[in-house]
Amino acid sequence: MNICIVGLGLLGGSFALGLKQQDQSYNFIGVDSNPNHANRALELEIVNEILPLEQAVVKADLTVLAVPVNALIAMLNPVLDLLPEQATLIDFGSTKELICRVVEKHPKRAQFVAVHPIAGTENSGPDAAFAGLLPQKIMIICDQEKSRPESVKLVESIFRQLDMRLSYMPADSHDLHLAYVSHLSHISSFALGATVLEKEKDEENIFNMAGSGFSSTVRLAKSSPDMWAPIFTQNSRNISAALDSYIRKLQEFKNMIDNQDEAASYELMKKTNEIRRILSGIDPK
Amino acid sequence: MNICIVGLGLLGGSFALGLKQQDQSYNFIGVDSNPNHANRALELEIVNEILPLEQAVVKADLTVLAVPVNALIAMLNPVLDLLPEQATLIDFGSTKELICRVVEKHPKRAQFVAVHPIAGTENSGPDAAFAGLLPQKIMIICDQEKSRPESVKLVESIFRQLDMRLSYMPADSHDLHLAYVSHLSHISSFALGATVLEKEKDEENIFNMAGSGFSSTVRLAKSSPDMWAPIFTQNSRNISAALDSYIRKLQEFKNMIDNQDEAASYELMKKTNEIRRILSGIDPK
User: Fold this and answer.
1) Interior CA angle at A64 toward A61 and A69, to 5°?
2) CA atoms of A259 and B76, how far apart (whole Å)
3) N or C: which end of chain B has fewer CB within 10 A?
4) B178 touches chain A (CB under 8 A)
């Protein structure tokens, strides 16, 4: 089976490496607009060959678009145009509503399955890819009733081969949940990093004091702006609402601190400690 | 040498365990107002014996106060009253300005050295303690000119034995820096956890989607309110200013997203990526 991967970064590369570990029979055809990434993916044996997009898609049984969501929007319809009749197309975009909307009227819509692996690190590019990224993580499949059953079955069987857990939801619910649980985390982390960088001109101070929890809270501020800026644009309505709630919560917390209302801030923290129990399956430490 | 540790939690316990690993000759006397913690610390061999505060302090060459900062304020002067003439007192509080102020006029002020180890986890209690917490971390020593040279030398030699890196600063600078690099991280994390818990009534959703960076950003929201509520009160002025800057930055970010100004949000993130280089010594991944 030929699998074409467009975008040989963290997600695309980890998908290929993870699948190779399970099954040697796949042939991976890589496509990347950055020739350095394409060469590096060959060197790292992420893919078996590199081809131009047009040649790769017509040769593949499954094409995976693992590029930033702005590139996805531009690419989805032209790639569907090229897609052979028996083939399936998926994308790994972190937004789903707009992506599903732009392909809505395409005659080959049913050959497309909109998915999103809930996995990532703050690193990017082929060197960031590793076989263990996707196994045991959630793969969300959106609006599966708009895809033909053979295509859904194919991708389900591949994700199961990768030992992923499948979850199904409408594209609009996906974007709403992700705004809170993923996109907001990235914004809070970037804003924290920016605030500290502006205040602490002496980098030595940041480095020395970062032991106190700063480095984990700010980890996501190392993430790629190329990936995240278009996500924030495409999911702006949900993210804006999430940010309003977050800013209101911070303001509420600040009022407690300003008023030295220790009982109230204690209560807010005690209630939020609940997150430990909820996350214990993920991060038991 | 007898070392009395008041508060057998994460920091007090890790200090004893770390030091024991370097040097078997210390005798650790434990004090804890919670008898379960005291017993557990004996079981875990964190301390060699448990005594009431009054008996422990008079027997010790060095007394370490490793309790929440509200308990510290209440305890500092009475413990200094008890302190033998040749002995030294230190505290591990996360705030330093008020702590130094309350002992300012005490006749034994010079026997007290105000320190703060820049290390911690989101866990608390004797079971959270481990020998590796303090080695290679920063120990900040505040207002050391107000302590007698023998006491400063004693604690410096112990911290070096623990392989800690020493840093010196005035108590007010300490509180200002920590507001940004530590206290703000905790508040942003608690506020994020509270926002998501309010929005996502279905815990399954949080658990399933937390892969996307949420768990590291929210890790500090598992921290102990008993420890943090009084820190926020004692450092409220600096924290309030830090929170104002943070909320302004979030609002600025939100405006970019609302206006779909991708170039501006890209630029903000690109600049903040600088944090990767600064933290690379701490968290090279």
Assistant:
1) 155
2) 25
3) C
4) yes
- Which residues 38-67 of B have a C-beta within 8 angstroms of A? none
Q: How many helices (H) and strands (E) does chain B have?
A: 14, 8
CA–CA dist A93, A113 (Å, integer): 11
Residue B118 phi, psi (nearest 5): -90, 80
Using a pLDDT cut of 90, give the percent of chain A over it.
Answer: 89
AA identity, residue A156: E
Phi, psi of B136 (to 5 degrees): 70, 0
CA nearest neighbour of B262 among A231, A164, A90: A231
Residues of A in contact with B196 (CB under 8 A): 180-181, 184, 275
Whole-number Å distance between alpha carbons of B133 and B121: 9
Answer for the pair B106, B79: CB distance below 8 angstroms, yes or no: no
Does the beta carbon of B1 lie under 8 angstroms from any beta carbon of chain A? no
Report the alpha-carbon distance of residue B283 to residue A211 in Å, rounded: 10
Inter-chain contact B184–A192, Cβ cutoff 8 Å? Answer: yes
Query: Token match 């040989």: residue?
Result: A8
Task: List pLDDT tens digits, range B188-226.
Answer: 999 999 999 998 888 888 888 877 688 889 999 999 999
Q: What is the distance in angstroms between the Cα of B105 and the nearest Cα belonging to chain A?
A: 26
Domains defined along chain A, listed by start? 2-169 (3.40.50.720), 174-279 (1.10.3660.10)
CA angle B17, B19, B25 (to 5 degrees): 110
